[in-house]
Amino acid sequence: MRIGELAEATGATPRALRHYEQAGLMTSAREPNGYRDYDERAVVRVRNIRELLAVGLTLDDIRCFLPCLDGDVTSVRPAAEGLRIARERLAVLDARIAAQTEARDRLAAAVSRAAASA
């Protein structure tokens, strides 16, 4: 299937698909005219990549999941490396949430003080 067909089947943009390929997460054959040609397994692979991105992993993080990207990622017993990466990413997200919560609380306090003095 061509890149546009894969994009339509997965909800990804052609640009994202080229980016995944450039990152080494997927491959394509080339037709004589230079067009990319993906096999049917690419649909599952792209959906898994998008799912892992949606939970907060990066493309670099996803590389450790390459052996299971063509199947049901959620039903495969996770490798130690995958769990380590997921825990690290979770810690990063927790730190970002804490920082944003602090900023929000400071802003809310400032707004309250300003409203009280107005």
Description:
The protein is mostly helical and 118 residues long. The chain contains 5 helices and 2 strands, in the order ααββααα. It has helices at 3-10, 14-22, 41-54, 59-62, 80-117; strands at 29-30, 36-37. The protein has a two-stranded antiparallel ribbon with strand order 1-2. Strand 1 and strand 2 (36-37) form a beta hairpin. It is elongated, with a radius of gyration of 20 Å.
List the helices and strands and how they pair.
Blueprint lengths: L2 H8 L3 H9 L6 E2 L5 E2 L3 H14 L4 H4 L17 H38 L1
Antiparallel strand pairs: 1-2
Element order: H for helix, E for strand: HHEEHHH
Q: Globular, elongated, flat, extended or rod-shaped: what is the shape?
A: elongated
Biggest sheet, spatial arrangement of strands: 1-2
Uncertain runs: none
Q: What is the CA–CA distance across the termini?
A: 64 Å
The percentage helix is 55-70%
Largest sheet: 2 strands, antiparallel
Number of strands: 2
The SS-based structural class is mainly alpha
Number of helices: 5
User: In what range is the share of β-strand residues?
Assistant: under 5%
What is the average per-residue confidence, as pLDDT, rounded to a whole number?
Answer: 93
Radius of gyration, whole Å: 20 Å
